[in-house]
């Protein structure tokens, strides 16, 4: 997975700074991939608990974006 640092594109293809929510989504995607890789290497399925932790992290990041603004 490629993480673009602090640059995103608007609907017209113009570069713009990433929002906190977009950065949070990227972080969660990286964490999900890490969990999948570790679980695959250990031959264990991804658990509901794993996904709950990731969803919690994502919710906290989004809440921070709402409370403190982008």
Outline of the structure:
This protein is mainly α. It is built from two helices and two strands; from the N terminus they run E-E-H-H.
Describe the structure.
The protein is mainly α and 70 residues long. It has one domain (20-68). Helix content is 63%, strand content 6%. It contains two helices and two strands. The protein has a two-stranded antiparallel sheet with strand order 1-2. A hairpin with a 5-residue loop joins β1 (8-9) and β2. α1 packs antiparallel against α2 (48-68). The longest helix has 23 residues, at 20-42. It is flat, with a radius of gyration of 15 Å. The model has no long low-confidence stretch (mean pLDDT 72). This is Cytochrome P450.
The string of secondary-structure elements, in order, is EEHH
**Through-space gap between termini:** 24 Å
What value does the Rg take, in angstroms? 15 Å
Instruction: Estimate the mean pLDDT confidence.
Output: 72
Supply the number of helical segments: 2
Total beta-strand segments:
2
Strand order of the largest sheet: 1-2
How many discrete structural domains?
Answer: 1
Tell me what portion of residues adopts beta-strand conformation.
Answer: 5-15%
**Fraction of helical residues:** 55-70%
**Structural class of the secondary elements?**
mainly alpha
Features:
mainly alpha; two-stranded antiparallel ribbon; flat; Cytochrome P450
Write the SSE topology.
Elements: E1 8-9, E2 15-16, H1 20-42, H2 48-68
Antiparallel strand pairs: 1-2
Helix pairs in contact: 1-2
């Amino acid at each position: 997975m490629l993480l673009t640092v602090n640059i995103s594109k608007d609907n017209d293809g113009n570069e713009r700074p990433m929002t906190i929510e977009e950065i949070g989504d990227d972080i969660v995607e990286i964490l999900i991939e890490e969990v999948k890789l570790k679980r695959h290497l250990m031959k264990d399925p991804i658990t509901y608990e794993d996904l709950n932790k990731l969803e919690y992290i994502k919710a906290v990041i989004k809440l921070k974006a709402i409370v403190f603004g982008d």
